[in-house]
Protein 1
Amino acid sequence: MNYSQTLEFLFSSLPAYETAGATAYKPGLERIAAFCRHLGNPQRNFFTIHVAGTNGKGSVSHIIASVLQQAGYRTGLFTSPHLQDFRERIRVDGEMIPKQKVVNFVDKHHDRMVELGLSFFEMTAALAFDYFAQSDVEVAVIETGLGGRLDATNIIVPILSIITNIGMEHTALLGDTPKKIAAEKAGIIKKSIPVIIGEHDERCDPVFAEVAAANKSKLLHAEELFTCTGQEPAGERQLFHLHRTRDNHDFELLLDLAGDYQRHNIITATAAIDFLHQETPLTISRRAFLEGTRDAAAHTSLRGRWQKLGEKPLVICDTSHNAHGMAYVGEQLRRQSRDYAHLYCVLGVVNDKDLAHMFPLLPADAHYIFTQAKTHRAIPAAELAERAAAFGLQGEVVADVQQAVARARELAGPDDMIFIGGSTYVVGEAL
């Protein structure tokens, strides 16, 4: 098989959550464990950091990976989903896995994958582990796909676990209350392995405390270790003023990721990096920390986080796709759009999202261009427009994402603002 045929096999023959939705979700670790045994358990050949959470886990994973790269470690990074190229999911020192490595892996292990009935995500995780081992990776940052307890990545035994935050998402699979979702995410807490919780939540904190205590795992809250006392633009970056609790040390940190919500992610990532340096075999210098955060997106090719695509009009895209994330995005849209004459929003959403909680978070005075990504999980643009109207969101329907973006550019003047989002798939097609 060539590369395109290999991808066709992966996306069509193996169930993928991105395309099939909940029917592709295969909870349990038996299949991935059996397949990794078949591969020689490559996930045991390097240190790992395991990152779960409803929002922010991608940014946190990329920031940590960038810092580790700058510290001189050969660093693997496994994230999902991808925006444009499947290979974005698997990186070593910021570089995507070569196409031929994907082809060779599938050719070699095709029969075993089919025999075990692996899901798309299980296969992808195993591919990442195998490639990292072959590439002499020293430490890998591993982001969960969905949940934690039964996620395919949960066969690793990390040196640190991180749970960024808890929001209401994938409730049909993870539970219909924050406590139930927290219990699923807490499933990544391993016996005697420290865990950092990114954001306090009075509903979920007792769940994490109970699971950590049962596993005799050290539990740390990032917001008790570091606080952000200020956040401001600094050219194409953001400047954060941080305070370290243990010694009352104040310092400044640059980050090349935009978005007001990054103040939460930088606290979580900083707490993790500080812990890794203080209490694990890894050594991270101040220089590596400062340079790694300053150029995190550049080092790891992270895109779609309040990313600027143009000026006059200002064009921003963001992958936030649930109510928890949209709360931050909606607030920033309201605040930032005050500096512009009109706001145009290109919006598309997939069919498992809680629209009743998402829509009220979006600016009602914007002109919406409702669209749909090329996935059968997408809510049809006309239906999305009809449902949005009930919440006072008005506009027009342009089903194709790229045509919708072109329509927004046609309507917007140089003093206007365009926002593109609602779904990772919409952002991917816009990019």
Note: The longest helix spans residues 99-116.
Protein 2
Amino acid sequence: MTYTVDSMRTAPEAYAWSRFGQPEYTNWLDESMSWKETCYIGDWSFLWQHRFTGPDALRLFSDITVNSYKKFDIGQSKHAIHTNKDGKVIHEGVLTRFGEEEFVVHGRGGFWAAFNLERGGYNAQVTKEDWFIFQVSGPNAVKVLHELTDSRDLLEAKYMHVVPVTVAGHSIHALRQGMAGEVGFELQGPKEIAQEIYDAVLDAGKDHGIRKLGGRVALINHLEACFPTIATDYIPAIFDEDMADYLEYFRSSMPAFAQAAYIAGSYNGQAISEYYRSPVELGWGKVVNTDHEFLGRLALAAEKENPSRVIRTLEWNGEDVAEVQASLFQEGDHYDFMEMPRDQRGFMWADRVEIDGQLVGVATSRGYSYYFRKMLSLATIDIEHAEPGTEVTVIWGAPGHPQKDIRAIVRPAPYKTDKSRGDLLATV
């Protein structure tokens, strides 16, 4: 199959919702407050998992990621990022070291690692895992988990480290992280006990206001906390000729109805590579370590020295947004529907960001924050226009459709204050 920008502008029915479970459980307004006021349990079990073992497993990851492994303790997790020759992100995900020669990858990066393992002559093995991944996050998250486990290890967990806990009589892993910009953990273990763990968390959370996190708001926390997401804020850099073998390998592992990416929005790129992003552009420059050889090393070293684009939050003008919605109640042509709180179909919804008619960036992850009562987006934006307070214009509407100029203001990313590294003992 030949991939073009046009071929990526149609997504299957309910693709995003099918990954995140039900669209909503109470309602999306209520659920969107959970990670600021109480806590939630969200299901990320759809992420692929691979286990790598063997003497060369660590060398494999050093060869194919931008990360340094000079310090990588047993029980530690890293945000592992894979790039192509131009320094654009292929995949990324969480890599956890469970033993001297034992590593587990959550996310698409496991496929890239397995692909390179098969072709690189490494003394290592890979197996697919089938784990549940339940995020429990928010101001009351530690209270809930502490009731469940009564584990001192939990309260002493370092950020991005795994600790063993016992829930409902089962020994599982708890990874301290903060995808909602709040204190939180990911509970991980074999799928066979998933329902028992889920029910136990809900039961312990009843007195703490816990909510089930539905698909309508699952990525609003990524938006508020600035966690760029594959296929939402960037297209994986796997559509170039030199990646043809890997693309075929990767697609063979995907559901029959799905493809690797979908595109929408006013940004009318002529080549798929225009939707690629580097770790520097996505705010992950600190992770990039050029102390070792990896694909894209030279390109990223140069970009870190002289970045051209950075990631910011855009605050969209509410009156202009309201005009878009109001057009549906008027005769004649109307603007493209602006889904609330965000589009659910799994697109990279990329919109032009302009100043005086000139392109200065691309907005993605557009979503409504009920907590802030703002329409927000992330944006990769030219560094000379990235100062918070800068006024820009976002173009709303697909190419060839009626388009609306929406005033916006550049704000910091993350937009919401990051509390994910707070003192756990203080939250009990």
Note: The chain has a mean pLDDT of 94.
Protein 3
Amino acid sequence: MATEYRMEELAAAAGIPLRTVRFYRERKLLPPPRREGRIAWYDEHHLARLRTITGLLARGHTLGGIAQLLAAAESGRDVAEVLGLDAALATPWSEESPVRLTPEAMADYFADQATADNLATALDIGYLAVDGDDLVHISRRLLEASSALVREGIPLADVLASGRAMRTRLDSLAALFIDLARAHVLPDTDLGEAIARLRPLVRDIVEAELALAMDRALREELDRA
């Protein structure tokens, strides 16, 4: 059977805030969901559409222009196929798997630090989405690493604050690589093939630079000590 999502699950799978999905839905950038009583169900086509919108925004398109492209493609091929984005966006860059959690399970990860304020912050950052009585975390690796940091004695509020700051910096880093690719690679090659070639290279560069940065920071900390 085809995978179906509630809106919160769709947002988590696409890696975007729930309010963004609602906004796209209101702007008619997403087709109507399948309704079962009062429950709206979204499928892989909706997920692909969200990834297409994200990809177009990253390439400098406005929401108005994207809406026009979508409208032009409604009677024929999907806009991702029309623009040659289907191969590039069918598989997300990340390999993160969402985790569904009951409130009790969340408490198992973070004990008494699973407070209303911390949950609200995680929702605002986009780490969590709400699905009925459950919570959906966007990444098992982030969830388990955050829990481990809390067990090391770092308050969850500080972990979340660091995550917010890190996301801002990494968004800028991702935009830097996109600009390089747009200027020097994408104009003369297929988008899907280019992303397949660049994906491991970008990961290697980021991992190597982060390791070198940690070496420098640790040396400075040892010198101060």
Note: Residues 191-224 form the longest helix (34 residues).
